[in-house]
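Appendix B: complex inputs.
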Amino acid sequence: MTAITGIDTSAPKRATLPLSLRLAWRDLRGGISGFYIFIACIALGVAAIAAVNSVSSALENAISREGQTLLGGDLDVSVIHRQGTAEERALLAPWGELSEIATLRGMARREDASKQTLVDIKAVDGAYPLYGTVALEGGGSLADALKDDGAAVDPGLAAQLGLKVGDRIALGESKVTISAIIAREPDRMSGGAAFGPRALISTPTLRKTGLDEPGSLIRWHYRIKLADAAQGDEFRKQLAKSLGDTGFSIRDRSDPSPGLRRNIERLAGFLTLAGLAALLTGGVGVANAVSAFVDRKRLVIAIYKALGASTTLVNKTMLLQIGMLAMLGVVIGMTAGAGAPALALWLAGALLPVQLEAGFQPQAALLAAAYGLLTALVFILWPLGRANEIRAAELLRENISSQRAWPPRNFIIASGLSALALAAAAIFFSSQHLIAFWVCVGMAGVFALFYSVGELIRALANKLPRPKTPEIAWALRAIARPNGLTRIVSVSLGAGLTLLTAISLIGGSLTKELTAELPDKAPSHFFVGIPKSDFDRFSKLIADVAPGSTLRQAPMLRGRMVNIAGTPVDQINAPEQAEWVLRGDRGLTFEENLPKESQIIEGAWWPKDYAGEPLVSFEIELARALGLKIGDMLTVNVLGRNISARLANFRTVKWESLDINFVMIFSPNTLKDAPFSVLATLDWPGERAAEEEAKVVSAVSEQFPSVSAVRVRDALETVNGILSKVLIAIQAAAGVTLAAGVMVLAGAMATAQQRRIYEAVVLKTLGATRKRILTAHLLEQLILAVCISVVACAIGALAAYIIVTQILGAPFYLSGYKLLQASALTTTFMLGSGVFGATKILRAKAAPYLRSQ
Amino acid sequence: MTHPLIDLADVHLTLNSAAGPVQILRGANLAINSGETAAIIGPSGSGKSTLLMIMTGLEKASSGRVQIAGHDFMALDEDALAKVRATTIGIVFQSFHLVPTMTALENVALPLEFADAPDAFERARESLETVGLGHRLHHFPGQLSGGEQQRTALARALAPEPKILFADEPTGNLDTKTGEQVMNLIFDLHKKKRTTLVLITHDRALAARCGRVIKVHDGQTSEDRAMSGSELATA
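Resulting structure:
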């Protein structure tokens, strides 16, 4: 290569780069004006996805990093209903330090019985905690706090009962002293969802409460701090083999809280899909910006071609130039999203169960970048392909066609392949592939639909007879214009509005279902752990304190599914919706008669006084999901014993009735001799004051200290609280989609501004007042906003109706406020931006514009 | 007998428009030999610009023969035509058509880069020095006067040392004095390099400086001969 001296010192260096790259770079030196919205659209979507995944990765990393502390040991071996035998403990002891703890639920009462609440009790030995420390408010050691029937409690428990350190509470059959308030409990998360505040007591104190009697819902955990951490896997294998069918579950530090991890994964998955919706909406802005870029570059492209550039070189140059700008958007988005863990740490660090690290999460950033670049490709290639239609002859001929032609076939194919790759990535990287697939189909459908809606509105505006009022006529003309804003408003705002409306209505329906209107026949209370020998006395008490009420009861045991039709459950690849049945302990019962609200769909219920082979009835939907067949053998492990029963029938269950429902009901001869407790519900029709209901709980917890009482409304409110938080996160993600739509629209309006100014100038020249021009302008925005809102509300409501009634199985509530809030916001934005845009249009002086045309 | 450098025979061009097909060229014939200077004149809409587009390969004729510097333009695709332009043809436009984001040097180097010339920038500098813009190498078009821009365009057109230089109303956007300077430059360079020059112009005085004048009327080349001053006055 010839060195060029004396011209430009950078010339030889530039010459080493491919010509397309040199040309792209030279053009970019002129600035990125016209690409701000393009970059912002990509950056916003990428930032949303990067933020969600960075936070979830940081959380999951923290959970893995703090696995030992969160689990409370290197391994946690647990069994329900019973304590480990000496032989079982002997299997564990040689491997390292051992700690025994018990977890259960119970009622904590004030000494004067005026208040009581459900508590999550944890009884610990002296070795607890094997990792980390329990921090107590005001300092002090846990060992000191737990001696002499002391209890360290959550601040929430003390507040709920109106007690302080030094006060006493009744727990089961004994009383304990609140000796300390828990500031931090290292292994809190390993126990799964908490139904009440924590009460930490010692194992001897638990014995005194009498809550550990056989058959009670108590889980005994054996945690090991391995002498040699490297032996973890080997130990786990040997242990699984030696414990066999004794009913023990084994968890290790690699996954200290599977439930939390699954929830983080799921929420991150949903929020990523919402981020993708934002990215796709932003893609419309990307396509617009590229179209405008191609229009701006027509002359330069024609010059290149006239000077001898090949079409391939021009395509490469344009693609590189746009690609560099897309990459800039991706980098900005990645950087912003990467800061999310730091923001989460700053905003909610104290509330998080783990020590979040604010560091860069490369996988999350790369995933977001991949989504960003694929989306950019989908929306760049199509309009960029149109640059092919630009011919050098345009330099000499003025009548340049501005008609939109289809891009060349290779651009269409590349664009389509990018879209497929994007969808494939969304499905592949989602933890819920099927849902991700339907979300992709839904998004494509929504975009196609709103594109058609835009066309329809335009066609209607074109077909309508010309109104007598000129302002309305001008507005309709503007809406009907082929290259006007109609289609872009529809596509950019439609998806976001539909999504927000649907989420809002789904959230509204679920919240109302959970809080406001309990089913007519829903029970008011659940009572868990009633000793079977005490049930008659319990019934009498309820008849006294809750006259007019009905008590329903069912025997209840906990058991773990072990084997289905000869296949161990850990080898069954269950679909997501049925996976939980195979995981952990399930409530089991036995019944002589088919429950009133159930129907047999297949098979037959067992006859009265049946005494043959053990039989089991299974809920129909879950049975289908698991692929069960009548006649299959099901084995469950109850109290360390494997019990097999033949599948006799499939039955329907009305979960929404909130009554006593079980997935599996066994024939009485299967389980009646096992040490079970009784689960009861209280049906108490009519409206009552909270105090009246509290009296029932008070009486029960006083006379049956081992029975846990749950007020259905309280439980639903707890669930609703969690749901509301999740909904806020989902709504925020959907809000990003609308924000992307707003940006797209702002970009489109900016592009159309010059044309609108010229039109306004012509109208002014012909005698139109500024008021009339402004009115026409606002009418156009209003008509468009209302039309799109109506369609978005209708589709959003329909989608919400289908999801709520068909997928979630809940009644659908149509709230006018929730239906219209997103639309009202959008209409206000449209009018606001209309006024803002109009001020610039109306300020423009006529002469310069007329001269330049 | 040598073959004409530009050889057009019975060239027709019909374009489709919303109102239906429009015949722009109706059997144009033209033969220009190497080293000649020719002016193409005619009223607006006569088809002279279209004739230029056909000769430069920017537009493809509907029928007829188009042979330029030995290349059969009717048989070449768009990219092959672009290659011929990069090496054989230089074009100067009325509106200069410089790339606004590139310096004068980069603009002039463009056709050389498109032709994969390894010494593109050196030759571009020489070309700019030839048109008297050696001191404006790193100026962007917006920083140059109209005359300087047209001289840059001329340097760009001549940098690859084309066999033919087409100039489309090169003084149309310049004041009289600057226009005259540019035209003097074009004719000086023609004399020096013996480049065949084809000039599209409305300016009869300018046409008179060419060896031949070709009149285009209603899509046909009605005359093709050297014209005297009085003939030009009535053309």
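The mean pLDDT of chain B is 87.
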